[in-house]
Amino acid sequence: MKQIKTLTEADYDAVFSLSQFAFQYELSKEGLLKKQEEVKRHMIWGWMEDDRLAAKLHLIPLSCYINGNAFSMGGISAVATWPEYRRQGMVKHLLYHALTYMRENGQSLSFLHPFSFAFYRKYGWEYAFTEQHYAIPLEKLKKKWSPIEGYVRRIQPDIPLLHRIYTEYAKVYNGMLVRDEKWWKQRVLKDKQQIAVAYNGEGHPEGYLIYNVKEHVFDVTEMVYSNLNGWKQLLHFIANHDSMADKVKLTVPENDKLPLLLDEPRFEQKLDPYFMARIVDVQRFLQAYPFQQDGKLTFVIKDEFFPENSGTYQWQKTAEETNVTISRSSNTVDAVHCTIQVLTGMLLNFKRPKEYYHVGLLSGEEKTIDRLEQLIPNRQTFLTDFF
Q1: At 1, is the pLDDT very low, low, confident or very high (cuts 50, 70, 90)?
Q2: Residues of the signal sequence (predicted)?
Q3: Domain annotation for the chain: domains and CATH numbers
């Protein structure tokens, strides 16, 4: 008998057996217990063949910041199929099931880390996050970082303190997670890490580093700051490790400005496609999206995999309210026409409307595209977490 089943703790042996095989890792007894505790927050669905687990998908209930506002988001994770059951459409059915669940439960967005961008684009997810990796010889950070004021101190894990700094930083970018205490403990703070906090002259925290130093490499797990002074203090702190490290490795937003501050900007800088995103419920998302001007616009959206989203959306915003009405007709001339993938990329501001327009992925009258450009806030996408 073939069916989708909601998996529970009773199924954990089968769940983790498939995960360890598919993703090629092995959990210790302690590691398995930690993972079992972590997935208690997950919805896990399995495709069953004669009561045996053939494929599975995890959905993590999360929230992320879009233009400074929190949006409910479903994180797709740990999608896997046993080899003998692959290429039979099981993951396709699981994805549709997950989208239906998210839509019914108010999650208007979904993120995932793909094994293949092409595979998940077929199902409506779109490239939306890039990581920029730096490998910088430490001698290039040794400069006068003045004017700076304050000091940096290493601390023991202090989640309330780190959370306050992180939240201020996260709201600047599109896509950063809204973390809770459990996420900090289970996903961010690890053993054998160092934490350093930058304070200004009045003792107010302005940034932090989570890092370790090993084999002459200063490896930054997370670098967060609220202003230029905090940023410079952290860079100065890293440079002071020149007696024990030859280079620093860190991951930064795609629009990072560090090369402008260094006397010698020639160092290893690598851009890697990272996460994908998908709008799950177009009407709900447009209703909540913080367009930066009042007005009206019509969107004609095509969602081949999840046709519940396909249709014409009349958006109108005044000082008092926002309204989004739906028509299943696509016979609208004065509108923007695009797929669910392009709509997601535009509204997260991964790329601007004119960029999609110039490569033929967005259509409409030029004046309508110009109007859309004015409506969408210009914020960088960035995601420091992984799931």
Answers
A1: low
A2: none
A3: 2-107 (3.40.630.30), 132-272 (3.40.630.30), 282-375 (3.30.1050.10)
